[in-house]
Amino acid sequence: MARRLGFRPSTDASTSVPRYSHRAVSTTALFACVMAAILCAMSLMSPVLALRRETMTLVTSAGEKQVTVEITESNEEKAKGLMFRTKLADDQGMLFFYDTPQDITMWMRNTYIPLDMVFIRGDGVIHRIEARTEPLSETIIAAQGQVSACLELAGGAAERLGLKAGDTVRHKLFKNAK
Which fold has domain 52-170? Predict the structure, then answer.
């Protein structure tokens, strides 16, 4: 007969209450903690939100490059951003657009991959680029000026694409759209 380790109750003669071995209680408690942690993580890592995808043109000194961007529209989408993603191609990104120009601030909480944060003015001119941001960092990264958007690209992609401050982007959300 097979024995289940630690799960067979014995009876305490003085109380007639079933007792379980310490191993059974410890194993059960550990299992419950692990399951709670998994469920908590799953709630944080909800499926990637289905964002609207559009093409954006990067106008660089090396020529024009096309990237496909996911457009964040709600506060929930902006809050989640690229969290929990494990890869991002050089020709993909996420655009955080704001109707009112402001000193946009970002961070890398729960973001597993390095990113380039491209801060863009309302006329589509790139104000500045914060390259290769540190994954999982809660350090605040500011636009350092009044901008209308932040384009997040894979870490190092801005350099590989030849993108720099002063270059422009073309998209219908910016005043320079064609």
Answer: Jelly Rolls (2.60.120)
Cα–Cα separations (whole angstroms), residue 113 to 34, 45, 101, 154, 172: 26, 15, 27, 8, 28
Q: Is the dihedral of CA 89, 129, 64, 72 positive or negative?
A: positive
Q: How high is the mean pLDDT in each 10-residue block of the chain (178 residues)?
A: 50 57 62 60 52 95 96 94 95 96 96 98 97 97 98 97 97 84
Residues in the chain: 178
Q: Specify the pLDDT at position 49.
A: 55
69 touches 94 (CB < 8 A)? yes
pTM value is 0.73
Q: Which two tokens stand for residue 44?
A: 């944080």
Residue whose structure tokens are 């958007």:
149
- All CATH 2.60.120.1140 domain ranges in the chain, comma separated: 52-170
